[in-house]
Amino acid sequence: MVGLASAIFVSVFGFGNAIFGWSDHTLHEVQLGLFLSFVLGVLCGYKTKG
């Protein structure tokens, strides 16, 4: 499951503008949101696991 989530994150983070048609103006804001949600998800998963 972690591998699937990581693969989806990398593909959307790297190629999301081509897939979803994000403009260059909003690309950095969307990438920042994706990155923060991924990091917070990892932290929450780690805290609930242990």
Q: pLDDT under 50 segments (min length 5)?
A: none
- Count of individual helical segments: 2
Separation, N- and C-terminal Cα atoms: 18 Å
Tell me the helix content.
over 70%
Structural class: mainly alpha
User: What is the element string, with H for helices and E for strands?
Assistant: HH
* Main sheet summary: none
Mean pLDDT: 84
Rg over CA atoms, rounded to whole Å, is 13 Å
Write the layout of secondary structure elements.
Layout: H1 2-20, H2 24-49
Helix pairs in contact: 1-2
Structure explained in plain terms:
This protein is mainly α and 50 residues long. The chain is 90% helix and 0% strand. The protein contains two helices and no strands. Helix 1 packs antiparallel against helix 2 (24-49).
Could you list some keywords that capture this structure?
90% helix, 2 helices, 50 residues, mainly alpha, elongated
